[in-house]
Automatic annotation (TrEMBL):
Pfam families: RraA-like (PF03737). This is Putative 4-hydroxy-4-methyl-2-oxoglutarate aldolase. It comes from Agrococcus versicolor. Signal peptide: none annotated. Its cofactor is a divalent metal cation. SUPFAM superfamilies: RraA-like. It catalyses: 4-hydroxy-4-methyl-2-oxoglutarate = 2 pyruvate; oxaloacetate + H(+) = pyruvate + CO2. InterPro entries: RraA/RraA-like (IPR005493), RraA/RraA-like_sf (IPR036704). Catalyzes the aldol cleavage of 4-hydroxy-4-methyl-2-oxoglutarate (HMG) into 2 molecules of pyruvate. Also contains a secondary oxaloacetate (OAA) decarboxylase activity due to the common pyruvate enolate transition state formed following C-C bond cleavage in the retro-aldol and decarboxylation reactions. Homotrimer. Its EC number is 4.1.1.112, 4.1.3.17. Belongs to the class II aldolase/RraA-like family.
Length: 213
């Protein structure tokens, strides 16, 4: 950790990242709305969790983090477990009145190759993320700073924006919002998304053609 604090109150559980990065990259080129349609419109996070940068898409492997409201010790600890291509997904208890993430942690994420951050709670230093090139999503923004006492967890399944997120799941975000996908089904989901995308291109071309007549 870049902070000198005791993190013994944080439970850390290892997990496997099995998603093929090429498949993650390929599916992230499609709209979240379309991916969600293919999944029978399930698996999307609560609409209240909004993009705080214009950087698109967000895509990677879920690194799940649980914190107490207003406390971010587990987020600091999670950076030691992060691998390039991870997305920090944080259950911060939906609390929007105290930020648990900011520009310093953002710089730490970029240094570790973290691909994005999603917080069911608040962040601050919101102007810094664009320049860092780090896509961030959150339920809220607040200048009030966090405590660093714990407890919390890194690597255990969490709830975020009403969706269960397990370590190694795939998460994709665009301007509409976020969706979480099981890594094992990624190739199959991508094939279905590509079929649906081709169908919609044809449909749209027909509509535009029709409008001209
Ligand atoms: O103080 C914190 O841990 C959150 C924050 O503002 C930062 O990371 O810059
Ligand atoms: Mg800060």
């Amino acid at each position: 950790m870049f902070l000198e604090v005791d993190a013994s109150s944080i439970t850390v559980v290892p997990f496997e990242r099995t998603a093929d990065p090429a498949l993650v990259e390929a599916i992230s080129q499609h709209p979240v709305a379309l991916i969600g349609d293919v999944l029978q419109r399930m698996g999307m996070m609560a609409a209240a969790i909004r993009p705080r940068t214009a950087i698109r898409p967000l895509a990677g492997s879920v690194l799940p983090v649980l914190v107490r409201e207003g406390d971010n010790l587990a987020i600091h600890r999670s950076l030691d477990e992060a691998r390039a291509g991870d997305v920090l997904v944080v259950n911060a208890q939906g609390d929007v009145n105290r930020a648990v993430f900011g520009g310093l942690l953002g710089a730490g994420c970029v240094a570790r190759g973290i691909a994005g951050v999603v917080i069911d709670g608040a962040l601050r230093d919101v102007e810094e993320f664009e320049e860092l090139g780090l896509p961030v999503y959150s339920r809220g923004v607040s200048p009030a700073g966090p405590y660093k006492h714990g407890p919390g967890s890194v690597g255990l399944p969490i709830a975020c924006g009403n969706v269960v997120c397990t370590g190694g799941d795939v998460i994709v975000g665009d301007g509409d919002g976020l969706i979480v996908l099981p890594a094992a089904d990624l190739a199959d989901i991508l094939a279905r998304v590509e079929r649906q995308a081709a169908y919609e291109v044809d449909l749209k071309a027909g509509l535009v053609g029709g409008a001209r007549r």
